[in-house]
Amino acid sequence: MVGQQPIDIDLYDHDDKPTHECGVFGIVAPDVDVARLTFFGLYALQHRGQESAGIAVSNGRGLRYHKDMGLVAQVFNEDKLRPLEGHMAIGHTRYSTTGSSKLENAQPFVVESVLGPLAVGHNGNLTNAGSLRRELLQRGVGLTGTSDSEVITQMLAGGEGATWEEKLKVFMVRAQGAYCLTVLTRDSIFALRDPWGLHPLCLGQLDQGGWVVASESCALGTIGAKFVREIEPGEIVLIREDGPRTVALMPAPRRAECLFEYIYFARPDSQLHEASLHAIRVAQGRELARESPVAADVVIPVPDSAVPAAIGYAQQSGIPYSEGLIKNRYIGRTFIQPDDQLRKVGISLKFNALPDNLDGKRVVLIDDSIVRGNTSGPIVRLLREAGAREVHVRVSSPPIRHPCFLGVDMATYPELIAHRMTLEEITAHLGADSLAYLSLEGLIRSSRRPGAAFCTGCFNGNYPVSIEMVEKEVFELQ
Questions:
Q1: Burial class (CB in 10 A: 0-12, 13-18, 19+), 276
Q2: Catalytic option among 22, 202, 258, 404
Q3: HSE (CB half, 13 Å, CA atoms) of 345?
């Protein structure tokens, strides 16, 4: 399957969600099959990226690795895992945000350096990747891929400093934007999070005494590890057999956590700041019901991601919750391209309606976000065809009017429906009887973290760092 890219049915105008970038994982555990545990950790993080996957392992003398295009279960099997022997490993599952989806951009990136072998897994997006890449090329550094993650790897391999700790500190001073890194050397793993804390990274411990880092806490539970704490913004943690140790802490003056981790990205069974994402999303639905009530007979979610918000809306409004759409959970990624007839079927590739729950009903349709608006309209039509008398769309996030440049593939300005249309125009475009979004203030209230600082760039254009306006595949064009 080398070089073959999964064809995503969602790309055929059936998906309308922000898409995330990557999941990272790392483990130090003597006398444990670390490659196998990394496989299962990545399996739990598959929702964060479905384009490629990779694992690198160290036995204290050298590194071995395997990576390829596809889902975790497509890239790895027993034969691929067996040679990955060692007591330390990092893993990565990718969704591309800078650099196209191809094998050259799959992670971890593995290089040889003056300090020995180095492997890097990156979740996020550098906003100054263009200038950093030009510096590397001017120094004569050869780059085989087109992602900012390779830029990070080469900056560390050839950067200033006599130790890995020094090189990582220099990198954090130079880099701008979002990054959570797992860095594997011959004898150590480093875990670091950008100074703004834009995306999550957590630390866990195995019962056997090993240590784990992961993008989300759900990956810890999958392999039987206990959540210990979050990696702090601006923190560099060194992990060896004797345990983790903070070697630097360089936070920004204010945090800027990505609100879409709370809305959509992180799995509902993950925790952020000791709060369940499921509970937070239920609170978003309750807040939405308070802000935008409507007379209706039934509340239904767009499955699966809007289920908690729909539960909250039903609880607060007193309108019964029900299922109105059944999702085909296996259609999301496939190597088989739909033919013209299936393309015409459109949204039915992903959803089927339940007429018994919809016929003659006034329906509140709950979704967690609308980006391009190319899915919500067909869903509204599907509900009407199944007999819904009215369809009132309620969205548990504010209108997305600006792209994200910090690690989320959020579409461009011309593609964002809320950037180019008014609320009334979007309502007409969707064919809904009414439409309302959760306010930014309501979203922040429902996060249950008074006084917390979030990145609100995609909602109001206020980004926490300076932005270089670059397109996703800009480096392919150079």
A1: middle
A2: 22
A3: 11
Q: How many residues does the chain have?
A: 478
200, 272 Cβ separation under 8 angstroms: yes
Query: Which range among 37-41, 236-240, 371-375 shows the weakest confidence by mean pLDDT?
Result: 371-375
180 is catalytic: no
Give domain 275-326+334-452's CATH architecture: 3-Layer(aba) Sandwich (3.40)
Handedness of CA 343, 344, 347, 351 (dihedral sign): negative
Residue with the two structure tokens 């950008």: 194
Are 284 and 446 spatial neighbours (Cβ–Cβ below 8 Å)? yes
Q: Sign of the C-alpha dihedral, residues 318, 324, 328, 332?
A: negative
Token duo for residue 33: 């099959």
In 162-264, which ranges are continuous DSSP H helix? 164-174, 218-222, 259-260
- Helix or strand run (H / E) with residue 291: helix 277-291
Choosing among 3.60.20.10, 1.20.272.10, 1.20.1420.30, 2.40.70.10, the CATH entry for 9-256 is 3.60.20.10
Local confidence band at 466 (pLDDT 50, 70, 90 cut-offs) = confident
Q: What is the DSSP string of 395-462?
A: ESS----S---SS-B---GGG-HHHHS-HHHHHHHHT-SEEEE--HHHHHHHTT-TT--EE-HHHHS-
Residue that the structure tokens 């981790």 belong to: 261
- Type of residue numbered 417: I
Instruction: Give the residue from 314, 258, 304, 321 showing the smallest Cα distance to 282.
Output: 314
- Asked whether the beta carbons of 41 and 223 are under 8 A apart, the reply is yes
Token couple for 16:
């309308």
- Give the β-pairing of 243-249 and 235-240: antiparallel
Q: Which two three-digit tokens encode residue 281?
A: 């999303």
Q: What is the pLDDT of residue 131?
A: 93
Cis ω before 304 (30° cut-off from 0)? yes
pLDDT band at residue 275 using 50, 70 and 90 as cut-offs:
confident
Angle at which helices 148-158 and 164-174 pack, to 10 degrees?
A: 130
Provide the 3-class DSSP secondary structure of residue 20.
coil
Task: Determine contact, residues 17/369, Cβ cutoff 8 Å.
Answer: yes
The rounded mean pLDDT for the chain is 89
Domain layout of the chain by residue ranges: 9-256, 275-326+334-452
Q: What is the mean pLDDT of residues 296-303?
A: 97
